[in-house]
Amino acid sequence: MKAKIITIGDEILIGQILNTNAAFIGEKLVGNGIDISESVVIGDDEESILKEFRNAFENNELIIVTGGLGPTHDDLTLDCIVKFFNTELVESEEVLNDIKNIFEKRGRKLTPSNIEQAKVPKIADIIRNHSGTAPGTWIEKDGKIFISLPGVPFEMKEMITGYIIPRLSEKLSVEKNKRIIKSLLTTGIPESFLYERLGDIEELLH
Q1: pLDDT, position 71
Q2: Exposure of 21 by Cβ count < 10 A (0-12 exposed, 13-18 middle, 19+ buried)?
Q3: Which fold has domain 2-178?
Q4: Most distant CA atoms of the chain, gap in Å
Q5: Which of 164, 179, 195, 201 is the most buried (most CB within 10 A)?
Q6: What does the pLDDT look like over 64-114, one tens digit per residue?
Q7: From CA 114, how far away is CA 134, in angstroms rounded?
């Protein structure tokens, strides 16, 4: 299975925030036998987002998108998903209750923009967010899996480890293809010398 990771957000595109989400997702997927074909960062621009959705869907079996699910005017991911899949947004009572509970625990008043976050694509399975207001979504179409997650790292990580990897394991039997990745740190040895010494080992692993 080939996967593409799409990270959305102007703040990441211009280097204001490091893209730790893609690194985390890539590590988890590869560790479970799923190859990463590409990882891209795009800004908060509808045309660019839809273009990447089309490209990803044509060339990959799994697409994971992070970012752009917040309540502000430049959070465009949901609108793009609706256009791309030709679906509509519907209010989820389950998500709305989750949002209300979070605001009650924090002692904050619920705003109309936060209530809007309870709307999800009609064709999607909901990935509940126990730490924030933006739910994740899981869509299957034409044998492909399209997953959208919030850009907040700790919210995204909880969904990856608690929902996505277990569901992928069950659906695709990725447990059989799990990879063990180990790092060997060296110092004072040129890369070219290491390559000559380790070349035979690398060939055996392919």
Answers
A1: 87
A2: buried
A3: Molybdenum Cofactor Biosythetic Enzyme; Chain A (3.40.980)
A4: 63
A5: 164
A6: 999 999 988 889 999 999 999 999 999 999 999 999 999 999 898 888 988
A7: 9
